[in-house]
Amino acid sequence: REHPRADIDGNVEVHAQEGAHIYGRLLTISEGGMGFRGLASAQAGDTLQVTISSDHLGSPINAKVEVRYVSDSGFIGCRFQSINGEAKSSIIQYIRTQESTPYQMAG
Length: 107
Prior knowledge:
Layout: E1 5-15, E2 21-30, E3 33-37, E4 47-53, E5 61-70, E6 76-83, H1 85-99
Antiparallel strand pairs: 1-2, 1-4, 2-3, 3-6, 4-5, 5-6
């Protein structure tokens, strides 16, 4: 694994074709990608345009991602293909805060 990842609470909006939007649940994030649930049709190799939003990340992040794998339980692992520097910085910042408080229980 290239980048440390952290659990995160948030939403993923997938911009489907013809202007449709599908909403999923953001579960993990790293500088290099993210994991979420909620897109039944996802297949490895798919390229998705997404908007990620979480209270932990400040403003919503628009990114292009490639689906790397889909687990049997429906967990979708994605790699960022394009994401702006500011967004990447806020992700790195968030992961650092998670690493420094490993024993904090989510309340």
